[in-house]
Automatic annotation (TrEMBL):
UniProt protein name: SpoVT-AbrB domain-containing protein
GO molecular function, one term: toxin sequestering activity
PANTHER family: ANTITOXIN CHPS-RELATED
Coiled coil segments of this chain: none
Length: 90
């Protein structure tokens, strides 16, 4: 598939198998905070295509647990049993 992205932000719709495809410039992807292989929904709104991420995945463990509240039910470490594979020795 051969496409040219012009400096003025235009892109070209090209045949790709039984579908059509276009490229989204890297700077736009970075501005949106999207990642490679992001799952997107695609819809038609006001005669335009609208792409939206299906979910906002956390970028790190801090984002993953940002809203977590401790329920206070644990006061010791949990015993997960004997090692069964390549677990790290702590």
């Amino acid at each position: 598939m051969s496409q040219t992205l012009n400096e003025d932000g235009k892109t070209k719709l090209s045949k790709w198998g039984n579908s059509n495809a276009t490229r989204i410039p890297r700077n736009l992807i970075e501005q949106l905070g999207w990642k490679d292989n992001e799952n997107l929904s695609i819809n038609i709104e006001n005669n335009s295509l609208v792409l939206k991420p299906l979910s906002n995945r956390p970028a790190n463990i801090h984002e993953l647990f940002a809203g977590w509240k401790d329920d206070g039910k644990r006061d010791t470490e949990l015993d997960w049993g004997e090692s069964k594979g390549n677990e790290l020795k702590w």
